[in-house]
Write a structure and sequence with these properties.
The chain has 318 residues and is of the alpha/beta class. The protein contains 11 helices and 9 strands. The longest helix has 20 residues.
Amino acid sequence: MRKISDKIDAITGMREEHRTPTPPCPKACKIELTGRCNLQCSFCATSKNLREKQDMDWDFYCRLLREFRTAGGEEIGVFYLGESMILPWLPKAIKEAKDVGFPYVFLTTNGVSATPEKVAECMSAGLDSLKFSLNYANPEQFAEIARVKKGLFNSLIENIKASRRVRDDNDFDCGLYASYIAYDGEQGQKMKVLVDELTPYLDEIYALPLYSQADLTGQDNKEAGWSVSGGNPGRLDNMRDPVPCWSLFTEARVTWDGRVSMCCFDHDERFNAGSLKEMPFMEAWHSEKFQNLRAEHLKGDVRGTACEQCISYSIDPS
């Protein structure tokens, strides 16, 4: 059985060579082809519209691919905070990454626009991994959280099932996965029903804690009655310490407008390490701002940094 959890755990588990203010070139980089999204989920700070959201320039994307590959990168995520499935040129972007020589190209999607036709195009272009964010138990909850028509929930579920048929009928070599937020109490039982329904169609499904998203959604979710985790501790079954946060050391993220971000949840540009329109990738990866924040994480004390409030959700107030 294909397992995406092994890859996730390898990224979130910091090896000794990463525990430095100047870690080596990361193995993986998520590239935000678009900052736009077709949902407005309450658990995601994208819904707060804290930054401008457009699509990445094609020529810049192609340059970035070659630069990252030359630096030593091996894996490309064709997404970051936006929803890449809404782009008509997503399959072209996947093919370009494969043509440049990346062994592994992966994508996470909310699934609403992942029609069988679009999935077939992406798999044909060489997509190695497709993961669905499955964060709603039923149509009513989908409408409440994603703030769109509840009928789209059924489209999402059908798209997931159809993706398996597309892969099998065409013998595409692409892993199929889903993750879901492990909300509290009764929600877990609701999700179990849906997870059981979709398990035969996917190679692996795993749970995530509810993140505070750099303290942009944490308080809202606490007021809604959910338990919130600080930082990005990874999978629920193999959670990492919030400090030092692996996301500063082992994975890169580039926004649609070319900024290297120091955080998985940089919805308001607080974590800008440098613009790749002004400097090479490795220069941004080792920028003074990035090094200083990494150094504080390695000391185990992020008070006074941009990470302070995010990490606070994992600290026992007693």
